[in-house]
Amino acid sequence: MAGHPFDPLSASELEDATRLVRKSYGSDLKFNVVSLQEPRKTVMRAWLADPKSNPKPPRVADVVVIDNNATVHEGLVDLDQGKVLAWDKLEGEQPIITLEEQQKVEQICREDPEVIKQCEISGMLASDMHKIYCDTWVVGYDERWGISRRLQQALMYYRPTPDSFQYQYALDFCPLYDPDLEQIVHIDIPKVRRPLRKDVPPIGYTPADVQKLGGYRDDMKPIIISQPEGVSFSMNGRELSWQNWKMHVGFNYKEGIVLNNIRWKSRNESEDRGIFYRMSLAEMVVPYAEPEPPHHRKHAFDFGEYGAGYMTNSLALGCDCKGAIHYIDAEVPTRNGGVRLIENAICIHEEDSGILFKHTDFRDDSVVVTRGRKLVIQQIFTAANYEYAIQWIFHQDGTIQPEIKLTGILNTYVQAPGENCDWGTQVYPGVNAHFHQHLFCLRLDANIDDGPNTVYTSDTMASDEPVGSLKNPYGNAFFAKKTKLSTTGQAKTDYDAMTMRSWDIVNDSKINSSSGKPSSYKLVSREVPRLLPKEGSLVWKRAGFARHHVYVTKYRDDQLWPAGRHVPQTSGEPSRGLPEWIGDGSESVENEDVVLWHTFGLTHIPAPEDFPVMPAEPVTLLLRPRHFFDRNPALDVPPSYLTLPSQIEKGERTAAYDATDKMSKPAFGGEEKTIPIVGGGGGCCSKL
Amino acid sequence: MAGHPFDPLSASELEDATRLVRKSYGSDLKFNVVSLQEPRKTVMRAWLADPKSNPKPPRVADVVVIDNNATVHEGLVDLDQGKVLAWDKLEGEQPIITLEEQQKVEQICREDPEVIKQCEISGMLASDMHKIYCDTWVVGYDERWGISRRLQQALMYYRPTPDSFQYQYALDFCPLYDPDLEQIVHIDIPKVRRPLRKDVPPIGYTPADVQKLGGYRDDMKPIIISQPEGVSFSMNGRELSWQNWKMHVGFNYKEGIVLNNIRWKSRNESEDRGIFYRMSLAEMVVPYAEPEPPHHRKHAFDFGEYGAGYMTNSLALGCDCKGAIHYIDAEVPTRNGGVRLIENAICIHEEDSGILFKHTDFRDDSVVVTRGRKLVIQQIFTAANYEYAIQWIFHQDGTIQPEIKLTGILNTYVQAPGENCDWGTQVYPGVNAHFHQHLFCLRLDANIDDGPNTVYTSDTMASDEPVGSLKNPYGNAFFAKKTKLSTTGQAKTDYDAMTMRSWDIVNDSKINSSSGKPSSYKLVSREVPRLLPKEGSLVWKRAGFARHHVYVTKYRDDQLWPAGRHVPQTSGEPSRGLPEWIGDGSESVENEDVVLWHTFGLTHIPAPEDFPVMPAEPVTLLLRPRHFFDRNPALDVPPSYLTLPSQIEKGERTAAYDATDKMSKPAFGGEEKTIPIVGGGGGCCSKL
């Protein structure tokens, strides 16, 4: 095998895996998952530490299939040895829903007599069934059927013309679909009916729609971003190097981008230090607020129920990404055992990030100005109506910044004339957008200075000493209190705005030579809504990971996804994933191989500004080195401009360092003011 | 007068004002402030509404001077009429400290026998006094002298060579300087002495310093940003137009950038709507945590004690700003009545801001991708060791995003060998950086839909109905509770992370046609530390504005600065500014001309990564239109790429809209994959 053990399964590996499974278990299986079983960590760490002496981890495919009797099996296939290692019937669980399964529902709804009847009740003509569209969601959990059969719920929309904007035209009933039977098995019909709102002028975002509103604005001049000398990063297969950062860029069906073995390796190789063994978004849940059934079922687990990898967009140069861009394709299985290529599934590029640091000496205007750079690794996925642009941003100062931009379309429901809804906003006449939350779970497999690690909370607070006391005479004393999270129980923690709580992932055995404090990375995250569905609610039971902002567990192979491996139709009794793994909370996570799970996101109370398509709303957080480096690790980034006091005193006319960007121009032409070296390198005082 | 009433005083107006004052009150006055008295709002609003029928507000200079007896006077000069309107002796208050006054201290310290003696005690040679440097701060408040005389405290540093990094070498004593006497009047000497740390290898950020660490990195390839067809904004004097935004860009000595009359004016002029009458950063305070006197005096009010305008940097094209940049100069008075020109005090430019919105239809991969743009109005000021880059960012979707990047150098103190400090971090051997906060006060003079306005808190919370009840059967109900802040007392409010509190500035008489809710702008701010010095502490008394995250007051002319007009040496008894204006809290702020004051910022627990120069740390917040527009206001931004379902169905080979950026390139060369119009406009499903 030529590839890296972290590499996703290649097309030929996918084909090998399906061929081997079919050979053993039948040729008419439907493939739900064929994906890399990630290398066992013990084996992998040994190989990474010394690839010459230690065996390379084997290539193993993780496979989930459904047979013609709707029975689900999962297994492991060793691709090196060409044999099935394990094969089990999946009972009491339901596998992910694939895009192929979602897409089939629309056609079946259009032909289903009961659906046609309901469409007529809603005010449609039976002859207009080709104008019906379905956004098909996993049913969530419905106690009438439980886990006994696979079920999808079809959110119903209407398009007067093929290019109409369906989310303006929601229908009020909800068919349930069984993908194994390929049938509508039930329709949930509200007690109070809300006819289709054809009475409102159409809206949308097509050129024709915009033309009706006055046409596109014509006053935006192009901005050109280019790197004529090439990019500053390099790729060795999927191993990326940029500005002291090293990592492997993986991808799987569930999480999309997976970053492995994130390290800081200095130019002279004097440092080669672990930071994270693995980093990904591992799950999310989107609870909606409308309590009236069946709306309570709207709480999508986009990763666990559909797969952020499966739903990943092909990105386009000059549209999704601008500048000099590197793309990586993805390959995923199809239901019939083929391979689907997602071209440009991941994009990687650099961006100028403004001033990295600056200081002017007010005495003489001697100055340093250094511009910064960031590296962005991006994926965008479409979950029916919503889009999520996930950016993994790396900075030169050692900061890692996961950022998600939310855009796309609101999930909508029909609002009757004169109706008022306590749990949604009428974003356009007749269009109700229910309140909802987007709660993402970031999984950080910590490896600070190659571990073991311990997590602490850090709370800034006033000294206990009263104002006027000997130790606090003027009352200004404050500090950061560090609390060790010794067990999984203690580690269930929440954000505290009173103390601006952050979390430190610490290697207590690696002491910083400057500060005498242990090496750490700090999680700084402020976009941390609580799970608003109440304790004991269906969502609370199913999304155990979202009950607290931070959990810490001891690393175990295959504990990857915090709502569990098979999320569809879980009842939450018991809660799967994190709550199972934590149990009674007594396990030690002190000085161990630890995983930190962090839930963050936003609560979305829609407004008309979000319709018909939402301006991207960012959610971000920072992972910052603290006591990890013994000085500013970006000190060696070349400045744009630097002058010295001694030069200014001597009246020298050149800067000590001048890499001013000569391509920058005054906005309205005219003379560029040259930087005056004597008395005025950016400062304020030389002309006094 | 040809200029705009919001324009700062021009050089000739500054000269007129000083000439008129000197004529009346003597030629040897020292000028502390000569600045525009902002137009009275009633007169100004009338003129803005109908400049033909209503008088243009007069040009009035606000002047503060100090005479040879150290007596301070302040007055108003009508520049149209050429006469002094008011002239008063300032008693019980001290004016701002100017850069000129700060710069003088160093020379006087070098020659002061007592300072020389203390330097010798610290381990310096008396012959090395030219190696002494002072960062001179306002004394803050010291009860030994109170407000009776002007006092500055000199934080002492040493430079072995002129280009050495002084913040590595702090001295342990603190001279107090009287700028009126031009003398050192006292030296605060600690009980336990800490000699100068010459025992540690020097560090710094000059090329020579970096050379010792291995030299600059050489693997950063240039990124070129250009606008060959020019910029998309225009300037009429200081009135700026960009993408439906209109505003006036002002500047004063205290706040730096002041934005006035911020409006949304659509292309076809069907809308011309007020948002903010005035927006600025109005004050800040930086309390340090070390309780041992005299460190308690370190709590700089950088705006009120020194002036963010006075300390503003001249910005350099291609260093501070990249791309196509427009600059505006500033002119401020000198102590002797002259004019100091700050070239390029403000820069204005556009940036690509990534995806503005995107949606892919998972059925056929029909797609819209629209890239966004932001406008940045920036100022950078140097407050002795720290730099603050203040960006006022405007987005096409109606969002306003004030953002501050903090960089520069930590304030440092000497740390003795083996010493441990509970209130600071040893960021480098011998260098103690005390914990501190940066609390900024954003002043929003609200004008949502041309007022009057009311402020509400908005708290997302679960329904009161229990899980399993008729109204909340599955427990998922939640909503945003709105609480009207009717009086100034009720409006003293704080962030609540449990509810992700935001604040809505509402025009209750302007109802959104889509939602039926009133027009508003929402303040979304998460970087909101509490003032950590305790209630009753010196800082708590002096920085009354920082006790709560939000205050609302009824607009009054001249209530601009929340710690008061003259901040130096205030005792906080009584607290000046906001606490005075609010009084007993009974005044109505419901449906009034209201001003919202918001304190935000960060608590900085330093680490070695912040030394010797700090990587820029951003603090940001959002002002978002909610129910202000009846749809996404950026819907008419031309897409990069748009395809229609009907096109894909017909197999057309062209997009409905294609403005793909053809200058973008693959990072490592090779073929660009063209966007396939049929089945794959960025989507995920066409290849199933």
Automatic annotation (TrEMBL), chains A, B:
Q: Catalytic residues per the record?
A: D302, Y386
Q: What does UniProt say on post-translational modification here? A: Topaquinone (TPQ) is generated by copper-dependent autoxidation of a specific tyrosyl residue.
Catalytic activity entry: a primary methyl amine + O2 + H2O = an aldehyde + H2O2 + NH4(+)
Q: Which residues carry this modification: 2',4',5'-topaquinone?
A: Y386
Record InterPro entries:
Cu_Am_Ox_Cu-bd, Cu_Am_ox_TPQ-bd, Cu_amine_oxidase, Cu_amine_oxidase_C, Cu_amine_oxidase_C_sf, Cu_amine_oxidase_N-reg, Cu_amine_oxidase_N2, Cu_amine_oxidase_N3
Cofactor, free-text remark: Contains 1 topaquinone per subunit.
Which parts of the sequence belong to the Copper amine oxidase N2-terminal domain?
4-88
Q: Which UniProt keywords apply?
A: Copper, Disulfide bond, Manganese, Metal-binding, Oxidoreductase, TPQ
Signal peptide feature range: none
Q: Name one Pfam family in it.
A: Cu_amine_oxidN2
Task: Name its co-factor(s).
Answer: Mn(2+); Cu cation; Zn(2+)
Q: Which domain of life is it from?
A: Eukaryota
Entry's EC annotation: 1.4.3.-
Please provide, alphabetically and separated by semicolons, the GO molecular function terms listed in this UniProt record: copper ion binding; primary methylamine oxidase activity; quinone binding
Which positions fall inside the Copper amine oxidase catalytic domain? 224-635
Question: What family is this?
Answer: Belongs to the copper/topaquinone oxidase family.
| Subunit text | Homodimer.
Q: What protein is this chain from? A: Amine oxidase
